[in-house]
Amino acid sequence: MTVLLNTLYVTTPEAYLRLEGETICVMVEKEKRLQVPMHHLGAIVCVGEVTLSPALMGRCMEDGRSIVWIARSGRFQARVEGPVNGNILLRQAQHRVADDSLKPLELARAFLAGKLRNSRNVLLRSARDGQDEQENSQLTHNAQQIANHVRKLETAPDLDTLRGEEGHAARIYFESFPLLMRVAAREYFVFDGRNRRPPKDATNALLSFLYAVLLNDCRSALESVGLDPQLGFLHAVRPGRAALALDLMEEFRSVIADRLALTLINRGQIQSSHFEKRDGGAVLLNDDGRKIVIVAYQERKQEMLMHPIVEQQMPIGLLPHIQARLLARCLRGDAPTYIPYLHK
Length: 344
Hints:
Layout: E1 6-10, E2 16-20, E3 23-28, E4 31-37, E5 41-47, E6 51-52, H1 54-63, E7 66-70, E8 76-80, H2 88-99, H3 103-129, H4 133-153, H5 159-175, H6 202-224, H7 243-249, H8 253-266, E9 275-277, E10 283-285, H9 287-302, E11 304-306, E12 313-315, H10 319-332
Parallel strand pairs: 1-5, 2-6, 5-7
Antiparallel strand pairs: 2-3, 3-4, 7-8, 9-10, 11-12
């Protein structure tokens, strides 16, 4: 079983990380603020203007720890890692499947079926727990519409049709998003649908940041089993795009990112004071807001659940790794189909 190592997130502006023996020291204005043992860490994520010493970067490359930089908006900027590892035979199998006429469509259908079913379950759960009968009825109706799109995925003849069904279902899901928030939170967390690059409101800023962090975890999971994260089946392949990581992330968006965003909003853990508005209308999390989200994300990853396929208790943070393994089995031909993760 894969061990869930911690990820060190560094959000303090102008922080400098250096190697000291078998530990990482975080320096801010030449003062040591944090010292972390290397063996506890699987990756380092730097948010904004964070630098590392050459010795620390070299050690991370030797040990197979990735270093990722993301902008304060949550946009991916760069990733540094050591020599490519993994099974070349698995990567060859992945490329053969990508060139197949039918298999990519089958895999894309599985990714989207997982995404839509999990999105539907988020709406149904809120409808069961909600206090407003009219809103609960609307959520139930919208969940049924998403279920209709799931059924249409089964007969979609090509990728464009699949993406069209997903687009319609995503619109219904995000139209429901305000109903998943407590009434008191809706005044500030106004949400009229997804917008990004840059996000124009607090809800989109929160979602975009969480999606960026989740994408990094999905990419690491794929690399850990030896797959090429850039060769996807649902998302179009283009230089610099982690298409397969985006594919895998689809089934976890609502389960991990969306539900965490709603929890932070509904519990009042994230508020208007945790955002800042930039010139041009962009809205971003500020330093305090990012710290709150990252701590909550790490805590969420440690929560335990039963995986429905492998039938084992595991932390939520291991879900991408397990699904990456199941995907690898399918690509090698050891399993007839890929079964997405369905959250109960």
